[in-house]
Write a structure and sequence with these properties.
This protein has about 80 residues and is an alpha+beta fold. The chain has a single domain, classed as SH3 type barrels (Roll), CATH 2.30.30. It contains 2 helices and 6 strands.
């Protein structure tokens, strides 16, 4: 099932399928290691919903909600 990263619940894991945006946001996400095939687990969400804390390639990363909306994921069961 496909889902964007911003719609994940804490504890949910998935694999990046694609970044739907082009330009600066896509480049920024790629530079942080958010690339197709990478496994991402949503660890926690800030109290007001922004940013999201994810576990990616062995480190925790904070991602803004608008950036997470561009990351198309395949949900792992």
């Amino acid at each position: 099932m496909e889902k964007v990263l911003k719609d994940f619940s804490p504890g949910e894991t998935g694999v990046v399928l694609k970044i739907s945006n082009v330009g600066k946001i896509k480049r920024r996400l790629y530079d942080m290691g958010v690339t197709p095939g990478a496994e991402i687990k949503l660890v926690k969400v800030a109290p007001l919903g922004d940013p999201l804390c994810v576990l990616l390639r062995g480190y925790e990363l904070s991602v803004r909600k608008d950036e997470a909306a561009e990351v198309v994921m395949e949900v792992k069961k």
